[in-house]
Automatic annotation (TrEMBL):
Domain (Glycosyl transferase family): residue spans on this chain: 182-346
SUPFAM superfamilies reported for this sequence: UDP-Glycosyltransferase/glycogen phosphorylase
Organism of derivation: Halomonas piscis
Superkingdom to which the source organism belongs: Bacteria
Record-given protein name: Glycosyltransferase family 4 protein
Residue span(s) of domain Glycosyltransferase subfamily 4-like N-terminal: 37-172
InterPro entries, alphabetized: Glyco_trans_1 (IPR001296), Glyco_trans_4-like_N (IPR028098)
Pfam families: Glyco_transf_4 (PF13439), Glycos_transf_1 (PF00534)
Length: 374
């Protein structure tokens, strides 16, 4: 299908523009959605990653920024309303808390406004949850990234949301062996040493503290040598580094900071460990499955929507460092099991999270509501 010159405009709204789940969703949907809509995205705050802006430009998505601080909601509302009024918009699609609160109030009356809930209700502050509830009545439609997210917001009073999973493009995670080996060389990890990987913001929700305790216990029972790379930034970074030192893990755990080469990290890893306390839809775990890396994840509701314990990976109870350590020990000492789980996980992602499939769901939602009154 060729791209129409006179496409209607689809405007995504984000709190900020930096690498993470939301930009990656918009990016992966573009090959299909971009044939039907001229796609833009606007951030309430400043742009933090110019290279990502350039990548979006290359695939036909225009990025805008309003330059508002996180705490200045009135200014964000004023600038967003002014900005949206200057565009001939067909669809506004808002993501995250503040953007989703403001979009129904700031979009032109003739524009259809949709929002996606990316996390369970408890992952937001009470004022944000209440704000979304108050402005929800003016939305055209709403989606949730998992059934667990949908269930949590129904309990809070927001209904009629469709569940649409995040897209994961398996082709992005085809990394050759030589490229993956550069990761081991960077961190001086020998080829015969097993590599564990965790990717995510360094926050309480992601439970890297539990992972460190599990690794400390694993060191005491593990015959084979191993290393752990934790990739990401966040408010708990110094606390986690101090905990690793306290546990004597300075030579076992590497804090890699923010990384743009997550695909290489995944390709180099033997096991992806994801012990989160709560999630909306764990995109990085799905990316690990797409890369053919076995996943060990916490037993939270969203996990069970895509990972079958003992078939496509392993799950372990939340906040249980001992069980997490035992599961790691199990996987580290069973290569055949790792390979079997990894293959099953990759096949599942390819079948159910293909960007083309997810994009068609969004197009159906947009177009199915276009003739309804706002």
């Amino acid at each position: 299908m060729e791209i129409s010159v006179n496409r209607p405009i689809l405007m995504h709204i984000q709190n900020h523009f930096q690498r993470g789940a939301i930009p990656h969703i918009i990016r992966d949907l573009q090959p299909v959605v971009g044939k039907h809509y001229e796609v833009h995205t606007v951030a309430l705050q400043d742009i933090k990653d110019q290279t990502l802006v350039d990548e979006f430009k290359d695939i036909g998505i225009t990025v805008h920024a309003l330059g508002c601080s996180r705490w200045n909601l009135p200014l964000a509302a004023f600038r967003l309303r002014t900005f949206l009024s200057r565009k001939n918009l067909a669809v506004v699609h808002a993501h995250a808390g503040r953007g989703a609160m403001l979009a129904p109030l700031c979009a032109p009356v003739s524009t259809k406004v949709f929002t996606t809930f990316h996390s369970v209700a408890s992952g937001f502050s009470f004022p944000t949850r209440k704000g979304r509830l108050l402005t929800d009545r003016w939305l055209t439609g709403r989606t949730c990234v998992s059934e667990a997210v949908n269930e949590s917001w129904r309990a809070f009073g927001i209904n009629n949301a469709a569940t649409v999973y995040n897209p994961v493009d398996v082709s992005r995670y085809k990394i050759d062996t030589a490229a993956a080996d550069t990761v081991r060389k960077e961190f001086n990890i020998p080829e015969d040493v097993k590599l564990l990987l965790n990717v995510g913001r360094l926050t309480f929700a992601k439970a890297q503290d539990v992972l460190l305790d599990a690794v400390a216990a694993l060191k005491k029972q593990q015959n084979n040598d191993f290393r752990l790379i934790i990739a990401g930034q966040g408010p708990d970074e110094e606390k986690l580094k101090a905990r690793a030192k306290e546990l004597g893990l300075e030579e076992t755990v590497y804090f890699a900071g923010f990384r743009k080469d997550v695909q290489k990290l995944l390709a180099a890893a033997d096991i992806f460990v994801f012990p989160s306390r709560w999630e909306g839809l764990p995109v990085t775990a799905l990316e690990a499955m797409a890369a053919g890396t076995v996943v060990l994840a916490s037993d939270i509701k969203p996990t069970k929507e895509y990972l079958t314990d003992g078939v496509s990976g392993l799950v372990t109870p939340v906040n249980d460092a001992k069980k997490l350590s035992d599961c790691l020990n199990n996987l580290l000492n069973n290569k055949a099991k790792r390979e079997r789980f990894a293959a099953a996980g990759q096949a599942y992602v390819r079948q159910y999270f293909a960007p083309e499939h997810i994009a068609r769901q969004y197009l159906s939602i947009y177009e199915g509501r276009m003739n309804e009154p706002k």
